[in-house]
Amino acid sequence: MKPYIYITRKLPEEVLRPLLDQYEVEMWEDENSSVPRDILLEKAQKASGILSMLSDTIDKELFEQSPNLKVVANLAVGYDNIDLAAANEKGASVCNTPDVLTDTTADLTFGLMMAAARRLIEADRYVREGKWKSWSPLLMAGMDIHHKTVGIIGMGSIGEAFAKRAKGFDMDILYHNRSRKPEAEETLGAKYADLDELLTQSDFVVCLAPLTPETKGLLQKEQFQRMKSSAVFVNAARGPIVNEDALYDALVNGDIAGAGLDVFEKEPIDEHHPLLSLKNVFALPHIGSSSVETRMEMMELCVSNIRAVLEGHIPNTLVNKD
Ligand code: GLV
Ligand code: GLV
Protein backbone atom coordinates (compact mmCIF):
# COMPACT_ATOMS: atom_id res chain seq x y z
CA MET A 1 0.00 0.00 0.00
CA LYS A 2 1.29 3.48 -0.89
CA PRO A 3 1.75 5.96 1.96
CA TYR A 4 -1.17 8.35 2.18
CA ILE A 5 -0.86 12.13 1.97
CA TYR A 6 -3.73 14.44 2.83
CA ILE A 7 -3.90 17.98 1.43
CA THR A 8 -6.32 20.21 3.26
CA ARG A 9 -7.19 22.41 0.31
CA LYS A 10 -7.64 21.94 -3.41
CA LEU A 11 -4.34 22.58 -5.20
CA PRO A 12 -3.60 22.58 -8.94
CA GLU A 13 -3.02 19.07 -10.31
CA GLU A 14 0.41 19.97 -11.67
CA VAL A 15 1.68 20.60 -8.15
CA LEU A 16 0.75 17.09 -7.07
CA ARG A 17 2.28 15.29 -10.02
CA PRO A 18 5.64 14.55 -8.31
CA LEU A 19 3.75 12.68 -5.59
CA LEU A 20 1.39 10.53 -7.58
CA ASP A 21 3.67 7.60 -8.44
CA GLN A 22 4.70 6.82 -4.92
CA TYR A 23 1.89 8.11 -2.77
CA GLU A 24 -1.84 7.98 -2.46
CA VAL A 25 -2.89 11.62 -2.40
CA GLU A 26 -6.23 13.05 -1.39
CA MET A 27 -7.34 16.68 -1.19
CA TRP A 28 -10.20 18.58 0.37
CA GLU A 29 -11.95 19.41 -2.90
CA ASP A 30 -14.05 22.42 -1.95
CA GLU A 31 -12.18 25.52 -3.01
CA ASN A 32 -14.34 27.83 -0.93
CA SER A 33 -14.18 26.28 2.49
CA SER A 34 -11.58 24.82 4.76
CA VAL A 35 -11.76 21.18 5.73
CA PRO A 36 -14.08 20.55 8.71
CA ARG A 37 -12.28 19.47 11.86
CA ASP A 38 -13.84 15.98 12.01
CA ILE A 39 -12.82 15.20 8.44
CA LEU A 40 -9.30 16.52 9.02
CA LEU A 41 -8.92 14.26 12.07
CA GLU A 42 -10.27 11.27 10.20
CA LYS A 43 -7.93 11.79 7.23
CA ALA A 44 -4.96 12.48 9.50
CA GLN A 45 -5.44 9.11 11.19
CA LYS A 46 -4.15 7.31 8.13
CA ALA A 47 -1.82 10.01 6.79
CA SER A 48 1.97 9.82 6.62
CA GLY A 49 2.06 13.43 5.47
CA ILE A 50 -0.29 16.41 5.65
CA LEU A 51 -0.06 19.52 3.53
CA SER A 52 -1.85 22.08 5.69
CA MET A 53 -3.07 25.66 5.42
CA LEU A 54 -2.57 28.33 8.09
CA SER A 55 -6.30 28.11 8.75
CA ASP A 56 -6.04 24.47 9.92
CA THR A 57 -5.44 23.72 13.57
CA ILE A 58 -2.80 21.00 13.77
CA ASP A 59 -2.77 20.31 17.49
CA LYS A 60 -1.90 17.68 20.07
CA GLU A 61 -5.17 15.85 19.57
CA LEU A 62 -4.43 15.45 15.88
CA PHE A 63 -0.83 14.28 16.39
CA GLU A 64 -1.88 11.81 19.08
CA GLN A 65 -4.55 10.25 16.87
CA SER A 66 -2.33 9.92 13.81
CA PRO A 67 0.03 6.97 14.25
CA ASN A 68 1.70 7.23 10.82
CA LEU A 69 2.14 10.97 10.64
CA LYS A 70 5.74 11.93 9.86
CA VAL A 71 5.45 15.35 8.30
CA VAL A 72 3.20 18.39 8.29
CA ALA A 73 4.08 20.89 5.56
CA ASN A 74 2.33 24.20 6.18
CA LEU A 75 1.61 26.44 3.18
CA ALA A 76 2.80 29.57 5.02
CA VAL A 77 5.87 31.01 6.65
CA GLY A 78 3.96 31.31 9.94
CA TYR A 79 3.25 28.09 11.80
CA ASP A 80 1.40 29.31 14.87
CA ASN A 81 -1.44 26.97 13.86
CA ILE A 82 0.74 23.93 14.59
CA ASP A 83 1.59 22.58 18.04
CA LEU A 84 5.35 22.10 17.74
CA ALA A 85 5.72 20.46 21.14
CA ALA A 86 3.16 17.85 20.14
CA ALA A 87 4.95 17.34 16.82
CA ASN A 88 8.26 16.86 18.61
CA GLU A 89 6.76 14.40 21.04
CA LYS A 90 5.52 12.43 18.08
CA GLY A 91 8.79 12.78 16.17
CA ALA A 92 6.98 14.43 13.26
CA SER A 93 8.67 17.04 11.10
CA VAL A 94 7.01 20.41 10.64
CA CYS A 95 7.91 22.49 7.59
CA ASN A 96 6.96 26.00 6.47
CA THR A 97 7.56 28.13 3.37
CA PRO A 98 9.97 30.93 4.24
CA ASP A 99 12.10 32.88 1.74
CA VAL A 100 10.03 32.14 -1.38
CA LEU A 101 7.36 34.54 -0.12
CA THR A 102 9.53 37.25 1.40
CA ASP A 103 9.53 39.82 -1.42
CA THR A 104 5.93 39.15 -2.37
CA THR A 105 4.73 39.72 1.18
CA ALA A 106 6.88 42.83 1.56
CA ASP A 107 5.36 44.20 -1.67
CA LEU A 108 1.83 43.69 -0.39
CA THR A 109 2.68 45.22 2.97
CA PHE A 110 4.12 48.28 1.29
CA GLY A 111 1.03 48.48 -0.90
CA LEU A 112 -1.19 48.30 2.14
CA MET A 113 0.72 51.16 3.72
CA MET A 114 0.48 53.24 0.56
CA ALA A 115 -3.18 52.50 0.05
CA ALA A 116 -3.94 53.55 3.60
CA ALA A 117 -1.80 56.68 3.40
CA ARG A 118 -3.09 57.85 0.03
CA ARG A 119 -6.65 56.59 0.52
CA LEU A 120 -6.52 54.57 -2.69
CA ILE A 121 -9.34 52.20 -1.91
CA GLU A 122 -11.61 54.91 -0.60
CA ALA A 123 -10.83 56.97 -3.70
CA ASP A 124 -11.66 54.09 -6.02
CA ARG A 125 -14.99 53.65 -4.27
CA TYR A 126 -15.66 57.37 -4.61
CA VAL A 127 -15.23 57.22 -8.37
CA ARG A 128 -17.33 54.08 -8.72
CA GLU A 129 -20.12 55.55 -6.66
CA GLY A 130 -20.39 58.47 -9.06
CA LYS A 131 -19.32 61.01 -6.47
CA TRP A 132 -16.54 62.59 -8.52
CA LYS A 133 -18.11 65.83 -9.73
CA SER A 134 -15.09 68.10 -10.02
CA TRP A 135 -11.38 68.25 -9.43
CA SER A 136 -10.69 69.92 -6.14
CA PRO A 137 -7.53 70.88 -4.27
CA LEU A 138 -7.94 68.66 -1.26
CA LEU A 139 -10.00 65.90 -2.82
CA MET A 140 -8.98 62.61 -1.17
CA ALA A 141 -5.85 64.31 0.12
CA GLY A 142 -3.85 61.77 2.03
CA MET A 143 -0.56 61.58 3.79
CA ASP A 144 2.95 61.40 2.36
CA ILE A 145 5.04 58.30 2.74
CA HIS A 146 8.37 59.64 1.51
CA HIS A 147 10.60 61.17 4.17
CA LYS A 148 8.32 59.93 6.93
CA THR A 149 9.27 57.56 9.71
CA VAL A 150 8.23 53.94 9.57
CA GLY A 151 8.49 51.66 12.59
CA ILE A 152 8.74 47.97 11.79
CA ILE A 153 7.73 45.55 14.53
CA GLY A 154 9.35 42.21 13.67
CA MET A 155 12.55 42.48 11.66
CA GLY A 156 12.72 39.01 10.15
CA SER A 157 13.25 38.46 6.44
CA ILE A 158 9.94 40.10 5.52
CA GLY A 159 10.63 43.05 7.82
CA GLU A 160 14.01 43.57 6.17
CA ALA A 161 12.55 43.28 2.68
CA PHE A 162 9.95 45.86 3.67
CA ALA A 163 12.70 48.12 5.04
CA LYS A 164 14.51 47.92 1.72
CA ARG A 165 11.41 49.23 -0.01
CA ALA A 166 11.03 51.96 2.62
CA LYS A 167 14.62 53.05 2.04
CA GLY A 168 13.82 53.47 -1.65
CA PHE A 169 11.08 55.90 -0.61
CA ASP A 170 13.54 57.89 1.53
CA MET A 171 11.82 56.87 4.74
CA ASP A 172 13.48 56.88 8.14
CA ILE A 173 13.37 53.35 9.45
CA LEU A 174 13.00 52.23 13.05
CA TYR A 175 12.65 48.60 13.98
CA HIS A 176 11.87 46.54 17.02
CA ASN A 177 12.89 42.92 17.19
CA ARG A 178 14.02 40.28 19.68
CA SER A 179 17.53 40.53 18.32
CA ARG A 180 19.49 43.34 16.73
CA LYS A 181 20.03 43.24 12.97
CA PRO A 182 23.46 44.80 12.36
CA GLU A 183 23.30 44.21 8.64
CA ALA A 184 19.97 46.01 8.26
CA GLU A 185 21.31 48.81 10.42
CA GLU A 186 24.33 49.15 8.19
CA THR A 187 22.86 48.67 4.74
CA LEU A 188 19.39 50.18 5.23
CA GLY A 189 20.10 52.71 7.94
CA ALA A 190 17.47 51.06 10.12
CA LYS A 191 17.67 52.07 13.77
CA TYR A 192 16.83 49.75 16.61
CA ALA A 193 14.20 51.14 18.99
CA ASP A 194 12.41 49.79 22.01
CA LEU A 195 8.70 49.36 21.41
CA ASP A 196 7.59 52.57 23.15
CA GLU A 197 10.13 54.65 21.31
CA LEU A 198 9.08 53.12 17.99
CA LEU A 199 5.40 53.74 18.69
CA THR A 200 5.83 57.38 19.68
CA GLN A 201 8.13 58.32 16.81
CA SER A 202 6.65 56.51 13.81
CA ASP A 203 4.28 57.91 11.22
CA PHE A 204 3.61 54.36 10.10
CA VAL A 205 3.71 51.38 12.42
CA VAL A 206 4.03 48.16 10.46
CA CYS A 207 3.66 44.77 12.08
CA LEU A 208 5.56 41.86 10.51
CA ALA A 209 6.32 39.74 13.56
CA PRO A 210 5.44 36.07 13.93
CA LEU A 211 2.68 35.15 16.36
CA THR A 212 4.34 33.71 19.46
CA PRO A 213 3.51 33.76 23.18
CA GLU A 214 5.66 36.93 23.37
CA THR A 215 3.89 38.80 20.55
CA LYS A 216 0.32 37.68 21.31
CA GLY A 217 -1.63 40.77 22.41
CA LEU A 218 1.47 42.95 22.07
CA LEU A 219 -0.55 45.95 20.90
CA GLN A 220 -3.17 47.04 23.42
CA LYS A 221 -4.93 50.29 24.24
CA GLU A 222 -1.78 51.83 25.82
CA GLN A 223 0.30 51.04 22.75
CA PHE A 224 -2.17 52.70 20.37
CA GLN A 225 -2.37 55.69 22.68
CA ARG A 226 1.39 56.11 22.45
CA MET A 227 1.24 56.39 18.66
CA LYS A 228 0.92 59.74 16.91
CA SER A 229 -2.68 60.77 16.24
CA SER A 230 -1.63 61.01 12.59
CA ALA A 231 -0.16 57.51 12.57
CA VAL A 232 -1.27 54.72 10.28
CA PHE A 233 -1.08 51.16 11.58
CA VAL A 234 -0.44 48.29 9.19
CA ASN A 235 -0.69 44.60 10.07
CA ALA A 236 0.41 41.97 7.58
CA ALA A 237 1.56 39.42 10.16
CA ARG A 238 -1.04 37.83 12.42
CA GLY A 239 -4.25 39.25 13.83
CA PRO A 240 -3.86 38.12 17.46
CA ILE A 241 -0.74 40.28 17.88
CA VAL A 242 -3.27 43.10 18.16
CA ASN A 243 -6.14 43.55 20.55
CA GLU A 244 -8.76 44.33 17.92
CA ASP A 245 -11.17 46.04 20.32
CA ALA A 246 -8.35 48.36 21.36
CA LEU A 247 -7.55 49.06 17.70
CA TYR A 248 -11.19 49.83 17.01
CA ASP A 249 -11.35 52.25 19.96
CA ALA A 250 -8.08 53.90 18.92
CA LEU A 251 -9.47 54.52 15.43
CA VAL A 252 -12.79 55.83 16.73
CA ASN A 253 -11.20 58.05 19.38
CA GLY A 254 -8.64 59.48 16.99
CA ASP A 255 -5.65 58.03 18.85
CA ILE A 256 -4.42 56.99 15.40
CA ALA A 257 -5.47 58.08 11.93
CA GLY A 258 -5.99 54.85 10.05
CA ALA A 259 -5.21 51.19 9.59
CA GLY A 260 -4.40 48.83 6.76
CA LEU A 261 -5.07 45.24 7.75
CA ASP A 262 -4.34 42.01 5.92
CA VAL A 263 -4.95 39.86 9.00
CA PHE A 264 -7.52 39.64 11.79
CA GLU A 265 -7.93 38.07 15.20
CA LYS A 266 -10.41 35.51 13.87
CA GLU A 267 -10.34 34.84 10.14
CA PRO A 268 -12.25 35.08 7.94
CA ILE A 269 -14.14 38.20 9.00
CA ASP A 270 -17.46 39.09 7.41
CA GLU A 271 -18.89 42.40 6.29
CA HIS A 272 -20.40 43.04 9.72
CA HIS A 273 -17.04 43.16 11.49
CA PRO A 274 -16.89 46.39 13.53
CA LEU A 275 -13.61 47.52 11.97
CA LEU A 276 -15.28 47.56 8.56
CA SER A 277 -17.74 50.20 9.72
CA LEU A 278 -14.81 52.66 9.83
CA LYS A 279 -13.85 54.67 6.77
CA ASN A 280 -10.21 54.84 7.80
CA VAL A 281 -9.73 51.06 7.79
CA PHE A 282 -8.60 49.11 4.75
CA ALA A 283 -9.08 45.38 4.90
CA LEU A 284 -7.61 42.62 2.79
CA PRO A 285 -8.36 38.88 3.05
CA HIS A 286 -4.92 37.68 4.25
CA ILE A 287 -3.23 37.82 0.84
CA GLY A 288 0.32 38.81 1.81
CA SER A 289 2.04 36.11 -0.19
CA SER A 290 -0.62 35.78 -2.83
CA SER A 291 0.95 36.26 -6.20
CA VAL A 292 0.48 33.37 -8.61
CA GLU A 293 4.24 32.80 -8.89
CA THR A 294 4.84 32.79 -5.16
CA ARG A 295 1.86 30.64 -4.23
CA MET A 296 2.99 28.07 -6.82
CA GLU A 297 6.50 28.11 -5.36
CA MET A 298 5.10 27.69 -1.86
CA MET A 299 3.05 24.67 -2.95
CA GLU A 300 6.04 23.12 -4.68
CA LEU A 301 8.16 23.66 -1.59
CA CYS A 302 5.54 21.92 0.56
CA VAL A 303 5.46 18.97 -1.82
CA SER A 304 9.25 18.68 -1.88
CA ASN A 305 9.38 18.87 1.93
CA ILE A 306 6.85 16.06 2.28
CA ARG A 307 8.76 13.90 -0.19
CA ALA A 308 12.05 14.59 1.56
CA VAL A 309 10.77 13.50 4.96
CA LEU A 310 8.95 10.43 3.67
CA GLU A 311 12.03 9.40 1.69
CA GLY A 312 14.31 9.78 4.70
CA HIS A 313 15.99 13.07 3.85
CA ILE A 314 16.19 16.35 5.70
CA PRO A 315 13.60 18.73 4.24
CA ASN A 316 14.63 22.18 3.00
CA THR A 317 12.67 24.24 5.43
CA LEU A 318 12.28 22.30 8.63
CA VAL A 319 10.89 24.23 11.58
CA ASN A 320 11.46 21.80 14.47
CA LYS A 321 15.13 21.13 14.05
CA ASP A 322 15.86 19.64 17.50
C1 GLV B 1 1.03 33.98 5.72
O1 GLV B 1 0.49 34.66 6.55
C2 GLV B 1 2.14 33.16 6.01
O2 GLV B 1 2.46 32.93 7.19
O3 GLV B 1 2.76 32.70 5.05
C1 GLV C 1 3.15 37.40 6.72
O1 GLV C 1 1.99 37.11 6.47
C2 GLV C 1 3.90 36.87 7.83
O2 GLV C 1 3.51 35.80 8.30
O3 GLV C 1 4.85 37.51 8.29
From TrEMBL:
UniProt xrefs under Pfam families: 2-Hacid_dh (PF00389), 2-Hacid_dh_C (PF02826)
Name under which the protein is recorded: D-glycerate dehydrogenase
D-isomer specific 2-hydroxyacid dehydrogenase NAD-binding domain location: 110-288
Keyword NAD: no
PANTHER family, A to Z: 2-HYDROXYACID DEHYDROGENASE-RELATED, GLYOXYLATE_HYDROXYPYRUVATE REDUCTASE B
Gene Ontology MF annotations: glyoxylate reductase (NADPH) activity; hydroxypyruvate reductase [NAD(P)H] activity; NAD binding
Lineage top rank: taxon: Bacteria
Keywords: Oxidoreductase
Signal peptide segment: none
GO cellular component: cytosol
Domain D-isomer specific 2-hydroxyacid dehydrogenase catalytic: 6-320
Record has Magnesium as a keyword: no
Family according to the record: Belongs to the D-isomer specific 2-hydroxyacid dehydrogenase family.
